[in-house]
Design goal:
Layout (H helix, E strand, L loop, with lengths): L6 E3 L2 H12 L2 E6 L7 H13 L4 E6 L11 H14 L7 H7 L7 E5 L11 H5 L9 H7 L4 E11 L2 E5 L7 H13 L5 E6 L7 E2 L2 E2 L6 E3 L18 H11 L7 E3 L4 H15 L1 H11 L1 H4 L1 H7 L10 E6 L2 H8 L11 H8 L12 H7 L9 H9 L8 E3 L2 E4 L2 E4 L5 H6 L14 E5 L4 H9 L2 H4 L2 E3 L2 H4 L6 H7 L3 E6 L2 E3 L4 E2 L15 H10 L4 E5 L3 E2 L6 E2 L1 E2 L14 E4 L2 E4 L5 H10 L3 H13 L18 H8 L19 H19 L1 H11 L9 H6 L8 H16 L9 H8 L6
Parallel strand pairs: 1-10, 2-3, 2-5, 3-4, 5-7, 7-10, 8-17, 11-12, 11-18, 12-16, 16-17, 18-21, 19-24, 21-25
Antiparallel strand pairs: 5-6, 6-9, 13-14, 14-15, 19-20, 22-23, 25-26
Helix pairs in contact: 1-2, 3-26, 8-9, 8-25, 9-10, 9-13, 14-21, 23-24, 26-27, 26-29, 26-30, 27-29
Length: 743
């Protein structure tokens, strides 16, 4: 296997045969997170391990994507038809199916450094095998654990008559993994590098493009062109939208943005689009919310509320659909280039990507970016970035344009003036985003595939060692990431400004740290950057309602000495460079008012805030009703919608899914109300408006006592969410989402 590379196979069994024969039966297989996993290869490798107990298989990965299954009868009735429709043609991971069923083969071990939030809370084995590592250190740890086989899902296409491959959705850890594997091979270790090529995978550029010999074996053929995993979007509640509006005021035109996946990411972008496309409406919302009055100094210094004339550049480990929405809305349009001198000129306003000034050669010589007597290297630089037009050639100190020759000696003014005839019209090679991985709804993949090659090149993909940190290119990356706003999510914020994002107090991992540490580090290293952590003010409901702003917490993802800006639906807490009494006051101001007194009392008892301090009156009305009263009327204008960028779910599914989620919360938060309400349903006739929902769950014609009980339970869930009093289903959809933040 180490003598030949880039071999194309269409037989996965033969591929696994060769890997086992070459590497042996002690296999530590590493693969990237999310979409970029070679499903058919790992399924066959796992099948072999199940059949052969002599094989010892360790799988190192993260965020294994799974089709939703459901546990109870009702959940299965809701999720199975949905899953069959949305995930049609998407293969599943056999090792995860066995893991969930408690049947994982004894000779197989799975270690993950990141998982779907809350996905492993009830699985001790997964908790015990969690790898606590930063995204940028995942390769290091995989190598330390003995990784000897690596595999990934890749895209491919013909370029200039040659089949080229793209790491596409996951160059994140894959670029470095391949490099590490080849270094091990050079030292005499037996390793295998596998690519699984899928024509449905968008062919992405940047650093993602590689040749066939990057891999030892490439699995390629019709059977590998399966459908890609495409998770549906989460609904955005009004409280989420308010967080998005708050964050939107902190984003500078001409700056840089990082956002994540999920409802809060969509909320931020929805707010930015409102700001850009309906600025009058946006300003009205800001005025009514009191944001400008409360945070005028912060917004003037660090933020902006105007339209995006210069636009934003995306620097984000995850290239999510929200960035595509910003691109479509002409917000994501600030181009950056892989050149320090060009970025300096652009940032200083002396060069625009779409307009090359006539004195550009003079400026570059003055900066010592090129020589006064242009070399072949200088010529390559000037043509690569479009400063000199296409079709020129360089030879022996002369630049040829067809039959006309120009001197490359710019030390003479006449030559400087003459070469202006050869200038291009705009810079080439710019990118509007640099991402490390992507996953999203089907429409997102389709949008990428439908783009021209030139347009798709605007979306650069690279490894996390480049995207998530400054090391190795500090000057260039700092120039590119000007006015950066690294926006991320936390679960809990302490009154001293520390953030818990990935783990509970009892040690159970919720997800993993991912790249959060890197964003925080960059935000403090770059002088014009800020770190924005979004925290929903509360969690739970009824008797289980709790504040996410707490006096202290038994775990910390971001320590208090790296605190910066914390945003809830009730406002913005700027807690950087401030003494702790002020930090505490700022955070109490953005906490839910049902918990403010308790928080203040705890701070006073600990001696962390003056005993005579009182919460200002303007911050004492932080209740959900306040958010609803502010934003709900604007829904008639088409804004603050539950799914601002569309959804793969039907209106029936949106309403029904939220109702069932509300029922689940009610059973734990207020079981007496649930029991009483359900009992009352047995004395009521079936409302006609419930029939479409019952039909969706196949409960419209119950055939057993159990199904009759389930039918009453569903009707109660619908009634509890005020759906039976609404015209089916449009009004119902909006009403219920505000009570149910996720399906």
């Amino acid at each position: 296997m180490n003598e030949r590379s880039g071999i194309i196979y269409d037989d996965v069994k033969k591929c696994v045969d060769e890997v086992i024969q070459y590497v042996g039966k002690d296999i530590t297989f590493s693969m990237t997170l999310a979409l970029g996993k070679p499903i058919l290869f790992i399924n066959e490798l796992y099948r072999r391990a199940k059949e052969d107990p002599e094989i010892k298989l360790r799988i190192i990965t993260a965020l294994t994507l799974e089709k939703p299954k459901g546990h109870s009868d009702l959940e299965k009735r809701f999720l199975e038809p949905l899953s069959d429709r949305i995930f049609a043609g998407v293969p599943e991971f056999d090792f995860m199916l066995d893991f969930r069923a408690g049947k994982l083969s004894k000779n197989v071990e799975v270690l993950e450094f990141f998982c779907k939030a809350g996905g492993y809370l009830a699985f001790p084995e997964a908790q015990q095998n969690h790898l606590a590592t930063n995204y940028t250190h995942a390769n290091r740890d995989a190598m330390a654990l003995g990784a000897n086989v690596f595999g990934q899902l890749i895209g491919y296409r013909e370029i200039n008559g040659k089949t080229m491959y793209s790491m596409s959705c996951n160059p994140d850890v894959c670029l470095e993994a391949v490099k590490n594997m080849k270094e091990l091979r050079a030292k005499g270790k037996k390793v295998a590098i596998i690519g699984e090529a899928n024509k449905n995978m968008p062919f992405m550029y940047g650093d993602a493009v590689v040749e066939a010999d990057t891999y030892d074996i490439i699995l390629q053929g019709p059977k590998y062109d399966y459908e890609l995993f495409c998770p549906p979007k989460d609904p955005v509640a009004l409280a989420d939208h308010m967080i998005g509006i708050n964050v939107s005021t902190l984003i500078k035109d001409g700056g840089t943005i990082q956002v994540g996946i999920g409802a809060l990411g969509d909320a931020i972008v929805s707010g930015l689009i409102l700001r850009n496309e309906h600025n009058d409406l946006y300003q009205e919302v800001l005025a009514k919310s009191g944001l400008i009055k409360r945070y005028e100094k912060l917004i003037n210094e660090w933020g902006d509320t105007g339209v995006f004339e210069k636009g934003l550049y995306g620097s984000s480990e995850m290239f999510v659909d929200a960035f595509m929405q910003m691109y479509k809305s002409k917000i994501l349009k600030r181009k950056v280039f892989e050149s320090i001198p060009l970025m300096k000129l652009i940032n200083e306003g002396r060069l625009a990507p779409d307009s090359i000034p006539v004195d550009i050669i003079d400026q570059l010589i003055e900066m010592k970016a090129i020589h006064s007597k242009l070399t072949d290297e200088d010529f390559t630089f000037l043509t690569e970035f479009g400063i000199l037009k296409k079709g020129l050639s360089y030879e022996s100190g002369l630049i040829r344009d067809g039959e006309t020759k120009y001197s490359a000696d710019m030390s003479h003014e006449q030559n400087l003036l003459a070469i202006r005839k050869l200038l291009g019209k705009e810079l080439l090679g710019g990118q509007v985003i640099l991402g490390a991985f992507f996953v999203g709804p089907k429409a997102f993949y389709q949008a990428l595939n439908d783009m021209s090659e030139e347009e798709r090149k605007l979306f650069g993909m690279s490894g996390v060692e480049k995207v998530n940190q400054l090391y190795g290119g500090e000057e260039l990356r700092a120039l590119q990431r000007k006015d950066a706003r690294f926006v991320n999510t936390g679960m809990v914020a302490s009154l001293l400004g520390s953030i818990a994002s990935d783990q509970l107090e009892d040690g159970r991992v919720i997800s993993g740290i991912g790249g959060q540490y890197n964003f925080v580090a960059m935000g403090h290293a770059l002088p014009d950057a800020r770190v924005i952590i979004m925290v929903k003010s509360t969690k739970g409901s009824g008797k289980n309602l709790k504040s996410n702003i707490v006096f202290s917490y038994g775990h910390c993802s971001v320590p208090k000495h790296l605190r910066d800006i914390i945003v809830t639906e009730y406002g913005i807490a700027d807690v950087r460079s401030k003494p702790e009494k002020q930090v505490i006051a700022e955070l109490i101001n953005v906490a839910d008012s049902r918990f403010q007194k308790q928080l203040l009392d705890q701070a006073k008892k600990a001696g962390k805030i003056p005993l005579d301090y009182e919460i200002p009156e303007e911050y004492r009305n932080n209740y959900p009703e306040k958010i609803t009263a502010l934003l709900k009327p604007y829904q008639t204008h088409g804004v603050f919608q539950p799914f601002p960028f569309g959804t793969d779910l039907t209106e029936t599914e949106i309403a029904l899914g939220g109702s069932l989620k509300g029922l689940k919360r009610l059973s734990s938060g207020n079981p007496l109300k649930m029991a009483t309400g359900l009992l009352q349903e047995f004395f009521r006739s079936m409302p006609e408006s419930s029939y479409p929902y019952l039909e969706r769950l196949n409960l419209h014609n119950p055939s057993s006592i159990q199904e009759r009980v389930l039918r009453k339970l569903v009707v109660f869930a619908l009634r509890n969410n005020n759906l039976l009093n609404s015209t089916f289903p449009q009004k119902a959809v909006v009403n219920q989402v505000e009570k149910n933040r996720s399906l």
